[in-house]
Amino acid sequence: MNRPLVLLIGTGAALGLNFPIGKLAMSQGVNPALWAAVISLGAGFAMLLAAKLTEVKRPHAKSTFQFAIISGLISYVVPNFLTYSVIPKIGSGLAAIMFALSPVVTALLSLLFRVRPPNLLGIIGIAIGLGGAVIIIFSRQSDFNGGGTWWILAGLLIPVFLGLGNVYRTLAWPEGASPRKLASHTNLAAVPFLAIAVVVQTGTIDLAPLESIPGLVALQLAVSTVMFLMFFRLQQIGGPTYLSQIGYVAAAVGVVIGVVYFSETYPTNVWVGAGVVAIGIALTTLGQAKR
Questions:
Q1: Is 1 helix (H, G, I), strand (E, B) or coil?
Q2: Which domain holds residue 172?
């Protein structure tokens, strides 16, 4: 698939599904870091199998080991660890704002390192999309704890690492490597670090909560596999800044999911925010097409 907009919407929609699925898993007593490890392990092996079955081995492709380790650390492990650490201190609403900042940070880093930097129209679209995402978050989240200064500063590292990961994957993409193989290796490389995080947090790895929700685990693995397959393809053809907007799409998709599956009701400004996100993405897509 070579259409960035389709990949962006598809990846963002899958990401948006991850949040309610994860919320249900947490309500059953699953440790968040363990849940992230299960996602990376299951999706990693599924994509590895898909690559084995559908791709011809490329004899001249460079090793993906270094790429997978660094990408897994800065894109998955560190942001997840920071998120789990700061939410109890600053609230889930403020943590969501931190995620919404990642496209802005990615755009700045892309300009700084000259890695497929956005044009003026793309920058305007990102700014508008951020405004829409913030409207949605403020309208849906009531948990905006002030927290201490150090915890807020720690939270601000979340978009920094997400942005670094977005730029790094484009900058260091191994020559000849396929998106499926990179997605698989990066996810699998993150598993040991996430497992260590679980042990540090809880002193053990308790799989009992997972055994009580096999259907939810299967659903999560299916959604995550589809998401990562599109995610790395989008990274390849869309670049880091365009890719980073999946958070905006996820915020808008979360509104629809809340209405359809959780019977939530929202004030008008939530729908206005979703519309603003759509305008921002349209402008960025237009900017991408003009490059």
A1: coil
A2: 4-53+62-290
Tokens of residue 257, six digits: 């999911």
Per-residue model confidence (pLDDT) at position 215: 95
Give DSSP secondary structure letters for 100-169: HTHHHHHHHHHHHHTSS---HHHHHHHHHHHHHHHHHHHHH--------HHHHHHHHHHHHHHHHHHHHH
DSSP assignment string, 35-75 = HHHHHHHHHHHHHHHHHHHH----TTPPP-HHHHHHHHIII
The number of beta carbons lying within 10 Å of the beta carbon of residue 269 is 13
The rounded average pLDDT for each run of 10 residues, N- to C-terminus, in the chain (291 residues) is 87 86 87 90 93 74 86 91 79 75 93 91 93 85 67 89 95 90 94 92 91 94 94 93 90 79 79 91 86 63
- The tokens for 271 are 């729908």
d(Cα 170, Cα 166) in Å, to the nearest integer? Answer: 7
Dihedral sign for Cα 2, 74, 87, 109, please.
negative
Q: Is 195 helix (H, G, I), strand (E, B) or coil?
A: helix
**Pair 174, 63: CB distance under 8 Å:** yes
* Count of structural domains within the chain: 1
User: What is the Cα–Cα distance from 142 to 10, expressed in whole angstroms?
Assistant: 28
Exposure class string for 95-128: b at 16+ Cβ within 10 A, else e: bbbbbbbbbbbbbbbbeeeebbbbeebbbebbeb
Q: How many CB atoms lie within 10 A of CB 3?
A: 13
